[in-house]
């Protein structure tokens, strides 16, 4: 894997630096791969991501409506073969672990949803890869991955809009972010939220997400799932990704009674966070101009203004509500009343 320096991008909302890789290699993959059901280990996920990275040339050709079966990758042999440097996956001292991970991957069955030529939804249930590995690892060691042509087509072929033949239903994400993940669910969730980046978010049934991540029969208690799967991924992506989610937000969990049934993922980007920062500055101007807040007063509600769990629009709505109440009632100290109202509302 290519080593790179980091470049910082400050998000105004949290006043922190999001450390993005200076060298960013983008991967494009079909959404059927992003949404596939499997449960790889961390090393196996890195292997899979590296395979998708080394399939980018044919994927880019598919984006341009080139018949992938005309490419050398498909025409030279009965099976599709790609060669990947071991250093793209792990350090040489981890080679034994990589070999074991590949041996296990060769026997793992995954479900890949796709739509056939008749627009019927189907699932391809398959083990994807065979591996050819050297006995001893060196810095220049490579791994040969072999797959059936139908499997390669599922991994490569990008759907097209029938009306204009433009590519649709694909995910674009940064290779280095996925490969640098320290938790096996971080890369999976990063790819999933990246597929929704343009739309800004999505709601998914908790059971569906658990199935997609291959943990349908684990974590019957939602808070165990949150602690072991969501929170570690949230913390990693928040620090180093081009997009992330906030599982601490009050509107993240959707309940039926007391049971969490769905999750509302808002896809946050540095640009989105910057916009939130502008709203926070706007709120400060409102309270300074209308309630004569001082710097000390602003500090007294800092826990509200800087909380990543509170929507800026909800704060503005509360200020308007309090302002209207003050206008209709005799309040001796409007500023103190607003401070108390904001803290009571949001610091529960």
From TrEMBL:
It comes from the Bacteria. Keywords: Plasmid. Residues 27-193 form the Initiator Rep protein WH1 domain. The keyword Plastid does not apply. GO terms for molecular function: DNA-directed DNA polymerase activity. InterPro entries: Initiator_Rep_WH1 (IPR000525), WH-like_DNA-bd_sf (IPR036388), WH_DNA-bd_sf (IPR036390). One of its GO terms (biological process) is DNA replication initiation. Pfam families: Rep3_C, Rep3_N. Belongs to the initiator RepB protein family. This is Replication initiation protein.
